[in-house]
Amino acid sequence: MTNEANQREIVLQVDGLTVSLHSGREIVSDISFNVHAGETLCIVGESGSGKSVTSFAVMQLLDPAALRPTAGSIRLEGVDLLKASSQELRRLRAARMSMIFQEPMTALNPVERIGKQVMEVLEIHREGDHAGRRARVLEMFQMVKLPDPERVFNAYPHELSGGQRQRVVIAMALILRPRLLIADEPTTALDVTTQAQILRLISELQQEMGTAVLFITHDFGVVHDIADRILVMNKGRVVEQGKSSDILTSPTADYTRRLICAVPSLVPVPSRQLTGEGVLEVEGMAKRYVMGSFPRKRHFDALHPTDLLLREGEILGVVGESGSGKTTLARCIARLVPASAGVVRLKGASVEELSSAEKRRSRKHVQIVFQDPYRSMNSRLKLRDIIAEGMVNFDFAPAEIERRCNELVQAVGLQPAMLDRYPHQLSGGQRQRICIARALALEPSVLICDEAVSALDVSVQEQVIKLLLDLRDRLGVAILFITHDLRVAAQLCDNVIVMRNGRVVEAGSAADILTHPRDEYTRYLIDAVPAREWNFRERVSGTIATTG
Amino acid sequence: MIFYILRRIVATIPVMGVVALLVFSLLYLAPGDPAVIIAGESASTEQLEKMRKDMGLDQPLPVQFAKWIGKVASGDLGTSLHSGKKVSEMIGARVGPTLSLATVTILLSLILAIPMGIFAAWARGRWLDKSLMSIAVLGFSTPVFVVGYVLIFLFSVKAGWFPVQGFTPISENPLRFLRTVTLPAFTLSLAYVALVSRITRSSLLEMLGEDFIRTARAKGASERRVLLRHALRNAAVPILTVAGSAAAFLIGGVVVTESVFNLPGMGRLVVESVLARDYPLIQGLILLLSLVYIGINLLTDILYSVFDPRIRY
Amino acid sequence: MNTLPHSPSVESNELRAIRMRRIALFLHDNIFAITVLALVMLAGLLAPLLTSADPDFINPGMKLKPPSAEALFGTDLLGRDVLARVLYGTRASLLVGLLVALVALVVGLLIGLVSGYFRSLDGVIMRVMDGIMAIPAIILAVALVAIMGANFITVVTAIVVPEVPRVARLVRSVVLSLRSEPYVEAAVSLATPTWRILLRHMLPNTLAPLIVQGSFIVASAILTESALSFLGVGLPPEIPTWGNIMAEGRRFFQLLPGLVFFPGLFLSLTVLAINLLGDGLRDRFDPKLIKRA
């Protein structure tokens, strides 16, 4: 930390800021906060809370065709940004205030070499000559711990990993040592181990340079690890703000408390006795992709031979980072992509031996729920027709279909009256419930959930997790749960397999693996989970009823 | 890079094969016996018989096709039914005016189209954008021959600046060459300029919504820098795609333009051959013009990799 | 945004109101194009009411007269009334345009659906399409007409053939991008038969781009037809079409420029209006714009 006087210096002062659509609707209403030199203020909120709009308003990067600040002031070291000319703003950007973004994959110009792009910052702000700029960029690459700075300097963005690109963006943002760094969900698109490294890097550089950091996130784990102070937003308004430790342990607002309690604990639920028969057996399943053509033909093993057994009423978690092969495994089992090798047995019967018509009919036994609830439904169909699709394919009688639709929609906690609605009239959580209802319509013995709760806000995520547990208890359906989120896995899964680079590195009961990992990679993965030791629900005071 | 270029070249082979097959089968699409079509209705049975033997029309189609391809590959496009001259020679005699017209048109288009698109994108939503884009829509909505006659009426008939019709080769008299080629080139380039400037504008605007543009703005980049350094190069691929495929307009437009301005080029030859039903000549012309078009598109494919490093696999 | 209206009737009323507002907005934004098109169509349909002259009536005493009170656009070499011929010519041009678009869309749609969904056929089909596209459209049309002989059906066919590959490619690209959409994959897992996936989940999503593409095809077909007629290889000269009138008039262009300009003006205005309407439709259907609204 820098010295105390510096600590108290206000870098950013936002006062009564309101941002509105052209229609007049307020997206952010009357929010005020300060950020001091050397401190990190976290703005936390769910989707639609206005947290990102706030950060873009500070940078003055809102799309003027859609949004504009209509009231209040934003002062950066005393300069009112809302009154500044566009020329002044351009001088301030990168030099006095900088921003890093959520999507490192698209944040860099894809057709320009990395070094040139970072040098452009110095070029725009007229710092040094060519050789001097180059040296400074290489030095900065070293500071953000990019391996082999010379190579990165000459590389194109697509030749770097997501984590490396985010380091480049950070280098770009901090090369002029700005007083304020705005980070808009900078680690959300990254794997958990990369996230841990990037967070560490940001806080190291912050300490070295005394930068004020405005950090936007939805993740209370990240908040716990990095925030000095917290500001909670909901529907464009400030819910509360205060010191990090105060808000996390004794929030004054009920909304904050509900949000914190919804964060799943990393402490696994106690093991259950599994007595059911095996419904899904997979043996030696593998997937190899062949890429390129003749002189440069290459292949890539997305999945090395893998076995698994799923019992009736079991929830088996498949966890791993991106590229671990977990989604490939799920898609091969669901037969959305043909596996290169392996045998699938459903209740003991091999799928391979079926005729092609029988193979199609046997799809009913394995159903899948996807990550993105917004793209999982044909927006032109009513919910009734969406849920009924499978039953129509299997020639159910119309009256039977109607009865089942009503039943299913209630089973996932919605009202039958909603069957006449269209997907766009539903929230994300409601859509995911409909997807689950559709998947259950054919009474499958296996339900595959491919990151099915990952795109949902924590409060909605909590409800969907409860729904899945409830459906398992009532219907005995076996669930293959693909997730990158160890917290979710801990709350849901009986058994877990951990995957890396297309191979299973460890398998066993969730309780064992999460508390006593044997494999080094598993340990590394668990260590990287933000606020790993922090069990939010137990630490927060003034409990609220958990189930309605 | 070399592999990419080689692969693009190899990829044009099946396309050329299909074109050759289509051109070859044109003769068999015509109602009636090809021999009768070629020899004329008045030919006697013996004449037709001899004709079939001479031209190999009595052999199975695949054999005929293979022989034809072999001849075409060695540069022999057959003999004109009408003049009795070699098709390749007849076409060769007409290349000059067309090549001159094409060169001037392409230069003119490049000078006009891209800057127009950039200015429109820069002034997006303002009057400059709206007027440039109105001109563009008007440009490709007006048929080439109407544009031609309007220009002739204004600049030749009324103002008397240019000759109404005719062509002088550049080797004969460069000044007269320019006077004869200016109006045709303007006529021909209008639709092309319109299309290319529109795609330039719309791809630039699309790029402006991308994340890396936001990054550039966060660096403090000016609007000019954002457009010219970041958006333009990323928009190169869609612009090239349209510039390449719209070359078909140019090639088709050559036929009409040469007819309007009475230029003795390949385009006029197309019309002449069609009106005379000179099948070998028609086939030869289509084949050649298609090869030019395929070549242009091969070139744009290769240029992709110059502008976008992701296409260099 | 996700709040639900209270009752079904309120909901459908609201939806209807939103739809009406959108239609009104579309009409407002495209008022020029729609007015011009409506006028041109009326001119074609009501030609007998708008002029008493017979477009085919040959009057040797009225050869090549400049515009006058009796013949507003003048008369041609055979003494026929040019205004009447231009008005009646509207019919042939619009008919060719619409017919070409319809046939090209249907054929291209079928080819595109098959090519996009059945990977085994894709290679062959797309190579053939590439081959057709490699021949410049007017050249191909000219050659086809030359070989098949010029009548209404051959002219339409000759203009359709070069348009089909563009439609097929468009549909194929939509199908390819939809194949990996989760909702299509969900349908696959529900054992939905292929034909139903194509019909129910893919076809409706190709309609918007097809309508836009269709309007551009109408415009380009009218242009191609007039170019064919102009070059003397289009519809038979006795049928009044804009291209034919110009083809006959071009010889006397210096004497009577109206013989070329009047039909040319009708032709250009019509094509302009259709292109503007196509632009309007594209803006209306562009998902990016919809998302922002």
Could you explain the architecture of this structure?
The complex is a heterotrimer of chains A (about 550), B (about 325) and C (about 290). Chain A is of the alpha/beta class. Chain A has 3 domains: about 1-85 and about 180-185 and about 210-265, P-loop containing nucleotide triphosphate hydrolases (Rossmann fold, 3-Layer(aba) Sandwich); about 95-175; about 280-530, P-loop containing nucleotide triphosphate hydrolases (Rossmann fold), CATH 3.40.50. Chain A is about 35% helix and about 25% strand. Chain A contains 21 helices and 20 strands. In chain A, the strands form 4 sheets. Chain A has a 6-stranded mixed β-sheet, with helices on both faces. A 6-stranded mixed β-sheet of chain A has the order 16-17-18-13-19-20, with helices on both faces. In chain A, strands 2-1-4-5 form a 4-stranded antiparallel β-sheet. In chain A, helix 8 (about 190-210) packs across helix 20. Chain B is globular, with a radius of gyration of 24 Å. The model of chain B has no long low-confidence stretch (mean pLDDT about 85). With about 325 residues, chain B is an all-alpha fold. Chain B has one domain: MetI-like fold (Orthogonal Bundle), CATH 1.10.3720.10. Chain B starts with a helix and ends in a 6-residue tail after the last helix. Chain B is about 80% helix and about 0% strand. The relative contact order of chain C is 0.13. Chain C has helices at about 10-30, 30-45, 45-50, 80-115, 120-135, 135-150, 150-180, 180-190, 195-230, 240-250, 260-285, 285-290. Chain C is mainly alpha-helical and about 290 residues long. Mean pLDDT of chain C is about 85; it is low at about 1-10 and about 285-293. At the B-C interface, helix 1, helix 6, helix 7, helix 12 and helix 13 of B face helix 5, helix 6, helix 9 and helix 11 of C.
